[in-house]
Amino acid sequence: MKIDENKFPILGCIKNNKLTDKVFDMLDNSGFDDKGISDIKPSFDFFNGKQLQINYISATIHEKLSDTNNFVKAKSLLVNSPETTGLLLLPETVLPDFTNVPEYVDVDPKDYPINAILYSWLSSNNHDKISNKSKLEDLQRRIKAGETPPPGADWDSYMRDLQDDEDSWDEESRTLIIIPIHSDRITQATNQYELTSNDEIYGWEYSEREGRAWYGKIHDYVMSFILFYNFTEAETHIVHGKETGQPRRLKLNDEKFLNETLNNIEIIDITYFTKLIRTGEFGVTGHFRVQHFGVGNSEAKIVFIDSYKKSGYTRGAKIDNK
After folding, report:
1. Which candidate, 185, 250, 226, 239, places its Cα nearest to that of 78?
2. Which of 70, 55, 82, 110 has the alpha carbon at shortest distance from 237?
3. Is the whole model's pTM more than 0.70, yes or no?
4. What phi and psi values does residue 170 have, to the nearest 5 degrees?
5. Which of 4, 43, 156, 169 holds its CA 20 to 30 A away from the CA of 200?
6. Is the pLDDT of residue 277 over 80?
């Protein structure tokens, strides 16, 4: 299949794996009024100048990631996991789960389809630093333009708070910020608060806390990907961008890929993470399991236990044999 701007227009807003200002054309295409655009724009500050890890999600992996139960038992691994800023390209269009959105809010998930997700997965402290820097620069621009504080507002005190360079208070926990995309438009349903979640509530029932009433399903999908990417025995293959001079074609498990963009894109080989373990005479449904190893079982990985119904044996994943 071709991975190109026709299939995923967001790729035309990225060059050498960095987001460009062209992404704001997609925001203008989205049909939001001025207030909506001003609410959404600050979300892009988390991606400015960052190298994006771009992953195309195969249909097989997509099916596993969509079922949070596959990974929720590995939730503790999210704490202190590698920080990443990236883009997920989905094999199908998905819809957010708005079943818990208050009834007085007139919202239809069909109006907010998603086939790509920009995500920022950083420590809570690092996300706060980016957010405070953006708020400070915005306030300074407003003051320079001659705007005066609204009644009761103390902008001097607010600026001092934003400039306060305290010691890092939380480097281990992770916060997730997403920007949902479909075709050539941003399909964000509400403000940045509803796009933010953290590792502590991964897998919780959707609620108004940390935006899960709006995007809990999508947050969990991205966190499941982070667990899958970092803790399964997956092997990634890169199809390189047009101007790199590196191979742009890949054949993997009888599927052909051609990268027609200016960015490097990772494809994950599904066969490398499947360590099949059959240990019994009774039927068990295939599932993922956290397996500890190393000195004092201090390290962990996620393995897939295939459905089984026969005498026990273990076949290692291909990566084990290299």
Report:
1. 226
2. 55
3. yes
4. -155, 95
5. 43
6. no
Mean pLDDT of 28-32: 86
Tokens found for residue 306: 């295939």
pLDDT tens column, 136-160 = 888 888 888 888 888 888 888 877 7
Angstrom distance (rounded) from CA 9 to CA 224: 25
Q: How far apart are the first and last CA of the chain?
A: 28
Residue with tokens 């705007």: 147
* Residues 85 and 114 sit within 8 Å (Cβ to Cβ): no
How many angstroms separate the CA atoms of 253 and 274, rounded?
Answer: 14
Return the domain boundaries, the chain.
2-231, 274-317
Under a CB-based contact definition with an 8 Å cutoff, are residues 62 and 91 in contact? yes
Contact 224, 302 (CB under 8 A): no
